[in-house]
């Protein structure tokens, strides 16, 4: 826990920056083990708490790095819906908090567990790995002869992990044309024009020689 003594941190706590979660929780004291009601505001990885809602200055802030969010132990659970923010290491403090309901406790625990910078780095790395996998295009081998045409395989569609899957609406009256059929139709036209051009060029060369 860090006591607020810098104007910039205090200003950030009460600024108009987006709030990830806020609400009433009870907090067990460090010296006095009784629970006191506090107004909590989560912004990024900083969990501020105030004596009253609307106060201009927070009482303190918990930096959510190097910690885990867990259910409170039986000896700590004087509150019915108690959980704790546990910092690992020697002489590190454990914050025991209490929610008003089971649903509120679960929502707070999930939000706090995802608030750390380390967690965000892991998520970004995993999303980057998934995007890198979708960027692998199949190798297209060129044909050895002009007459044969190899249909390229379309690359896999990129999937945004943040978008929910939506049903695809298809029109049953519209005939479906596959990529292979489309490629074959146009490649035949190109080959026909190419052969005609070669024939005309060969004929023109023969006329010049005979002249």
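^ Assign residues to that structure.
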């Amino acid at each position: 826990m860090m006591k607020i003594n810098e104007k910039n941190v205090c200003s950030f706590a009460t600024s108009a920056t987006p709030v990830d979660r806020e609400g009433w929780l009870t907090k067990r004291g460090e010296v006095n083990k009784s629970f006191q009601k506090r107004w909590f505001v989560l912004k990024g990885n900083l969990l501020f708490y105030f004596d009253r809602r609307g106060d201009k200055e927070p009482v303190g802030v918990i930096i959510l790095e190097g910690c885990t969010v867990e259910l409170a132990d039986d000896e700590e659970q004087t509150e019915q819906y108690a959980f704790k923010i546990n910092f690992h290491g020697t002489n590190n403090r454990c914050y025991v908090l209490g929610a008003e309901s089971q649903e509120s406790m679960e929502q707070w625990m999930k939000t706090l567990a995802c608030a750390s910078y380390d967690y965000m780095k892991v998520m970004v790395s995993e999303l980057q790995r998934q995007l890198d996998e979708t960027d692998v295009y199949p190798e297209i081998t060129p044909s050895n002869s002009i007459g044969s045409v190899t249909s390229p395989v379309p690359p896999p569609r990129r999937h945004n992990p943040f978008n929910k899957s939506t049903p695809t609406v298809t029109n049953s009256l519209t005939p479906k044309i596959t990529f292979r059929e489309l490629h074959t139709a146009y490649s035949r036209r190109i080959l026909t024009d190419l052969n005609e051009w070669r024939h005309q060029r060969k004929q023109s060369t023969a006329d010049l020689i005979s002249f």
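Residues 175-211 form one domain.
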